[in-house]
């Protein structure tokens, strides 16, 4: 153990010299010949341990010990009484005042060295434990702060999501209500004319044509509201399933084949680019949902009407612990000005065609919250878009 900073307090200089000769070869030793001077030295530069005589003029050792223990700067400094008072009652009283040990004169040098070494070790261990506790408390406070911040951000995101859903659903519902009300008024008017025997064939034909248009509008707007609800459910869906070892090439081939009714009729092509032996441990239901959404997004946004394209679903190892899954197309790429917002909920460049703008947001959430990875999407050099999932080769079991 390295030497300590020790303060010897005794009104007898012979006792100070005797103690110093025992300790100064291993420790830094200072001394005081009065209780008042001892308190001044300890307050200015707290020692690691105090060797304190009891019987001194003015402030005796007991009073000095009490005052040391009331000062926050010296409260944790161990005090060892070294005194000629040897009765059990005196020793008990000294310990009650706050001392950690009691050595009687004439003292044994070996005993003094051993007691000093023991209490220095204990003090340093206690200080180390106190520092570690303070460090842990600081970590807990910081963790609590971050959790509170994350909770605030989640609530803000939830409020934004709810507001977006309300706005998106209100539009088709408003159209549907207006259409239904208009259709009801027309039906009432036609019923009155029919009852009055005033309905002409041309009026009936116009009414039927108008009713057909309103019915189509109603059907479309209700379908859009249903699609919004379906996407919103996808944000919080559990998707179920357990982690499994997945052979990725046949898995990706199965995903692309299940989507054939969506990519084959328009004339698009799909390929799988994956090593035959590549595997990962993950939740196949979530992986399938994510990949299907990325393929649908490519088919919906990459190719203008009448243009045929290629979509490639790929997988590759990225080191021993990471797998990259990708969906690439050779289409139009991401529109200028949209890259920074493309993952926002309800952001879409195709709202007029019924796009809700939740698909990529769902993918981003599932990639981080349920698969333990991350998601990026960007235009490819040379044209098209590349969506990439950076995933652990083994999804953590607690996700």
UniProtKB/TrEMBL annotation:
GO molecular function: kinase activity
Reaction equations catalysed: ATP + protein L-histidine = ADP + protein N-phospho-L-histidine
UniProt keyword DNA damage present: no
Top enzyme category: transferase
Record has Cell division as a keyword: no
InterPro entries given in the database record: CheY-like_superfamily, HATPase_C_sf, HATPase_dom, His_kinase_dom, HisK_dim/P_dom, HisK_dim/P_sf, Sig_transdc_His_kin-like_C, Sig_transdc_resp-reg_receiver
Coiled coil: 119-161
Family matches, as SMART domains: HATPase_c, HisKA, REC
Protein name per UniProt: histidine kinase
Organism of derivation: Azospirillum himalayense
Organism placement in taxonomy: Bacteria, Pseudomonadati, Pseudomonadota, Alphaproteobacteria, Rhodospirillales
């Amino acid at each position: 153990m390295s030497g300590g900073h020790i303060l010897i307090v005794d009104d007898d200089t012979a006792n100070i010299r005797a103690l110093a000769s025992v300790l100064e070869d291993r420790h830094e030793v200072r001394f005081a010949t009065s209780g008042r001077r001892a308190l001044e030295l300890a307050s200015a530069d707290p020692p690691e341990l105090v060797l304190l005589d009891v019987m001194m003029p003015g402030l005796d050792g007991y009073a000095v010990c009490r005052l040391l223990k009331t000062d926050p700067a010296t409260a944790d400094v161990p005090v060892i009484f070294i005194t000629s008072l040897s009765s059990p009652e005196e020793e008990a009283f000294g310990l009650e005042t706050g001392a950690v040990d009691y050595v009687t004169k004439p003292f044994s040098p070996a005993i003094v060295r051993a007691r000093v070494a023991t209490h220095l070790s204990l003090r340093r261990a206690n200080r180390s434990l106190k520092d570690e506790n303070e460090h842990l408390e600081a970590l807990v406070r910081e963790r609590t702060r971050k959790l509170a911040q994350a909770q605030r951000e989640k609530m803000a995101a939830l409020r934004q999501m709810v507001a977006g859903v309300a706005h998106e659903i209100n539009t088709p519902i408003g159209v549907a209500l207006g259409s239904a009300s208009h259709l009801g008024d027309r039906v009432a008017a036609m019923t009155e004319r029919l009852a009055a025997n005033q309905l002409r064939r041309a009026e009936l034909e116009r009414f039927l044509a108008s009713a057909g248009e309103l019915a189509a509008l109603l059907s479309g707007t209700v379908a859009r509201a249903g699609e919004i609800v379906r996407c919103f459910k996808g944000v919080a869906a559990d998707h179920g399933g357990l982690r499994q070892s997945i052979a990725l090439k046949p898995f990706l081939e199965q995903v692309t084949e299940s989507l054939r009714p969506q990519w084959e009729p328009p004339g698009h092509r799909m390929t799988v680019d994956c090593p035959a032996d590549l595997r990962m441990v993950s939740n196949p239901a979530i992986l399938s949902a994510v990949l299907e959404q990325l393929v649908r997004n490519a088919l919906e946004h990459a190719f203008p009407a009448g243009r045929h394209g290629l979509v490639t679903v790929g997988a590759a190892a990225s080191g021993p612990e990471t797998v990259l899954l990708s969906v690439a197309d050779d289409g139009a790429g991401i529109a200028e000005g949209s890259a920074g917002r493309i993952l926002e909920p309800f952001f879409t460049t195709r709202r007029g065609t019924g796009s809700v703008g939740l698909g990529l947001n769902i993918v981003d959430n599932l990639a981080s919250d349920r698969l333990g990875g991350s998601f990026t999407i960007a235009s490819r050099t040379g044209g098209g878009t590349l969506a990439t999932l950076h995933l652990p080769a083994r999804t953590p079991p607690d996700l």
